[in-house]
Amino acid sequence: MTSSALPLGRVLIIAGSDSGGGAGIQADLKTVLALGGYGATAITAVTVQNTLGVTGVHPIPVDIVQAQARAVLSDIGADAIKTGMLGDVAMVEAVAALLDEAEAIPAVIDPVMVAKGGATLLADDAISAVRSLMIPRAALLTPNAPEAAALTGLSVENLDDQRRAGEALLQLGARAVLMKGGHVSGERVVDLLMTPTGDTIFETDRQDTRHTHGTGCTLASACATGLAQGLDLSTAVAQAWAYVQEAMASAPGLGKGHGPLDHGWTLRG
């Protein structure tokens, strides 16, 4: 995969930091760079984590998060915005306000709720805020099955369920939904890109690997990079999907738990 022919593409990432480097802001920045874009950040929280799990979360004050984003937008600018870990209602409300200020910039919303190791990254009372405030502002929403179930109240256990939940999320206002199938059982993994005009299926054999930390962050940031570079939605998602599959396959094998991906595989020729 090469991205040298694409325009740079500026991506503002609004998300939490991962001290282990496999997910969150760190994975986002690696992904944007690997695909030829330029990443800037507004950090919503500092987490204490490694491949074994999250052991601490320190939220950044809401006004500081907004100030970070506005500093970037007023100077460097952005061609796409990607949101990840938001944490609580106040942060969701603040980020929604930022998206309104930058309404001409497409937003890829990753509704992060739980870390790979099981730690909660979104307060229960913030789920309704994500539903009402973030989904309608999404050019692309990228939920996994548990996140889609929490947002819609529907069971998501197979492809029909994925499609049903995706339709419900479109009804809630998302302009497009990428229903990720990694949490759905089966030998094949099916991701479903849904828009009001049609669906696209991305399907592959399930990789037998424990190195899946940060796959959701990585996929959403890769999608945002493609959009920032002017790709149409289906092409941006296809590029992002292929990038994540190879990043999993060539994972460096670090850590004792859910290991990180090989974000830099595109840079080695």
Account of the 3D structure:
This protein is α/β, with parallel strands linked by helices. Helix content is 36%, strand content 21%. It is built from eight helices and nine strands. The chain has helices at 24-34, 62-75, 89-101, 127-134, 145-152, 159-171, 215-228, 233-249; strands at 10-18, 38-50, 53-59, 80-83, 107-109, 140-141, 177-179, 188-195, 198-205. The strands form two sheets. The chain has a six-stranded mixed β-sheet with strand order 3-2-1-4-5-6, with helices on both faces. The protein has a three-stranded antiparallel β-sheet with strand order 7-8-9, sandwiched between helices. It is globular, with a radius of gyration of 17 Å. The relative contact order is 0.17. The model has no long low-confidence stretch (mean pLDDT 94).
